Amino acid sequence: MDDIIREGDPVLRAVAEPVEVPLQNQDREALQCMMQFLKNSQDPEMSAKHKLRSGVGLSANQIGLSQRMFVMYLKDDNGKNVEYTWVNPKIISHSLAMVYLPESEGCLSVDRPVHGFVPRYESVKVRGFNLKGEVITQKFKGYQAIVIQHEMDHLDGIMFYDRINKENPFKLPQDAEIRSLYEQKGK
Description:
By secondary structure, the chain is of the alpha+beta class.
């Protein structure tokens, strides 16, 4: 956790620089270390031993690198662990419908509780490069779409709480179809 940059550091508010593709060895190694951190943070034994907070996504600027790349390690709709490495990602399309997490979002760079709804697109289609430098295009929905938008915001210097309504943290946009992620899933 000591390697995670915390809110207030200017690198989290800077727009990250594009990454040269094919990837240089140091970029590939940084992404592999970031992925290992996420895996360790979700392993009860490793997280307790190293005092890690559990995370599902980590952007390069959260470890002090102002580069447009991040990793995600989370469960898919079938409960299976999946990992994604994104370099120079762009959202190329998104749904009109929006979702939010009723418990708000969290962030490894934010050590305090933040309450409020963070509106996100229900689904997004993303194009970028993977660890091998290959062009990939993938569609995400639900929780995975929320996570990828959270990480992409980091690359643009946006913190999740910037998207919370300042006057009323639990007020949702009136001009969009929006619902709790769990209502959408029928939970």
